[in-house]
Amino acid sequence: VLPEDPALVAPFQEVLWEEKIDNGYESGEIAAKARSLRGVLRPVTAESVERDLRDAGFTVSRFWQHLLFVGWLCTKN
Q1: What's this model's pTM, rounded to 2 decimal places?
Q2: What is the DSSP string of 8-77?
Q3: Residue 77 pLDDT exceeds 90
Q4: Beta bridge partners of residue 58, listed in sequence order
Q5: Residue-wise over 21-54: b if at least 16 C-beta within 10 A, else e?
Q6: 3-state DSSP call for residue 6?
């Protein structure tokens, strides 16, 4: 997801890249994956996702978040 404050996008992405490098990925691999996702991934804010899910009739509970990744548990009303 995107953070609510756009100024946080770059710092979060930098931390994610550093974590991936620490886990053994090469910079070239990380950059290639980022390029491949650019054309298909449309990140939005967590609040926007939650609003869309509620509008679709779900009860939404955010149960996990790490930097720009969020997990929700959703049940259909």
Answers
A1: 0.76
A2: GHHHHHHHHHHHHHHTT--HHHHHHHHHHHHTT----BHHHHHHHHHHTTEEEEEEEEETTEEEEEEEE-
A3: no
A4: 76
A5: eeeeeeeeeeeeeeeeeeeeeeeeebeebbeeee
A6: helix
